[in-house]
Amino acid sequence: MGQGIIIKALSGFYDVLVEDKVITCKGRGLFRKKKITPLVGDYVEIETQEDGSGTIVNVEKRRNELIRPPVANIDQAIIVSSLVEPDFNPLLLDRFLALIEFKDINPLVVFTKEDLTTEKQINELNEFTKVYQTIGYDVLVVSKVMDDLNEKIFPYLKNKLSVIAGQSGVGKSTLLNQLDQGLEIETNNISKSLGRGKHTTRHVELYPIGKGFVADTPGFSSLDFDEIELEELRFCFSEFLEVQDSCKFRGCLHINEPKCAVKEAVKQGDIAQFRYEHYQNFFEEIKSRKPRY
Length: 293
Prior knowledge:
The chain is an alpha/beta fold. It is about 30% helix and about 25% strand. One of its GO terms (biological process) is ribosomal small subunit biogenesis.
C-alpha cells in the first residue's frame, strides 16, 4: 500500500506519483458503482501488483475541484490577462476572480504583453493594479517576451498545485511553454476576425515546475455562475467581507437594503466602484438564471 498524487488521467488509467516513482494504476471496480471518478490532483492510496502496475483503492477527500478542466485540490489559479490583443477586460477578470474565490482557490493575477502597451494603457493598468493589491491579491506584470517570467512566477509555484486561467488569446499556452520548455503545448495564432485564440487539449496532466505542480491545461473553459447561488456571491468579493458585518441586516445582499456598509464603502471610495458594478452585474445574471429542478 502506498500514498501518492494522480498526475495524469487518460482512458481509465491513472499515473500516480508515489515519492519519486510514477505507477500506472486503474481504479477499483467499486468506484463505478459509487460514482467516484478519480481526478488529476487527487491524493490516493494504491496497492501495487507484482508486474509493477497498481490499483487505486481509496481517494482522499478533496479540498476543491474543477469540472473543466477536471482537476482536484488546486491551491492557486494563475489568471492571465493581456493588456492588448485582446484588450484588458476588467469585467472578465472579476468573473474569474469570483469563480476562483467560490472554489476556495488562491488567485495570482498576471498581466501580459506589457511591452506592447501605450503610456496611457500603463497608467490605467497601474490604477487597476492598485485596486487588486489593496484587496490582497498578488499581481505580476510581464512583457510579451517574458524574459522575466520565470524569475517572477517561480516563487509562487513552490509547494502548490496551480492551474492557469484566462480568456482565449492572452498567452496561457505561451506562458506554460515558457515555464517548462519541454511541454511544447500547441499555441495557435489569434484569429483576427474573432480576436481570440484556439486551444485543444485531450487530457490533463500535472508537471513538476518550480518545486510545485502546474496543470498543462488552461483552466475554466466554462465561465458561468451555475454553481453559485445569489446568497453566496457576496462571499466571492473579499473586500466586502471586511465591512459587511457592519450592514444593518445580517443577510444583506448589498443591493437594495438600507444602511448597507458595502454600498457606503463604495461611496467613500474604500471599495472600487467598478468592482461593485461587476458584483451587481453578476447578481442580476444569477437572479435571472432559469431555475434548475
